[in-house]
What we know:
By secondary structure, the protein is an alpha+beta fold. About 20% of the residues lie in helices and about 30% in strands. It has helices at about 5-15, 35-45, 60-65, and strands spanning about 25, 30, 75, 85-90, 95-100, 105-110, 115-120, 125-134. Helix 1 packs across helix 2.
Amino acid sequence: xxxxxAAFARAADAYCGVPFRLRGRxxxxxxxxxxxxxxxxxxxxxxxxxxxxxxxxxxxxxGLLALLAPAGFTATSRSTAAGDLLLMQPGPGQFHLAIALDxxxxxxxxxxxxxxxxxxxxxxxxxxxxxxxS
Length: 134
């Protein structure tokens, strides 16, 4: 039987190629990294939390991080596994979510490429937090 994490990763991966749109939640018009998490959770039968307002760059993300536990995520320090939710900080005041497909690959809504993509998870990615579905 497939784990919730593996199902979450598979659901997110199905959105590869969907256009990027800030605060987007519709695969037809576009999604952002939070939208990708929202849709993948919904697709595996979880109820995504209601989101506060947010922007592309923001200094404080405590309100968003507080939604992880109610959505079924628990912080983990274990090796990256399929379905882990990764918080990255690509630049000052910039945060980004990605979903691990396995220990070396992620799926995420890439603002620069303007679509959801699969990429390698590298040592240069600044992963600042990791959560696993429980």
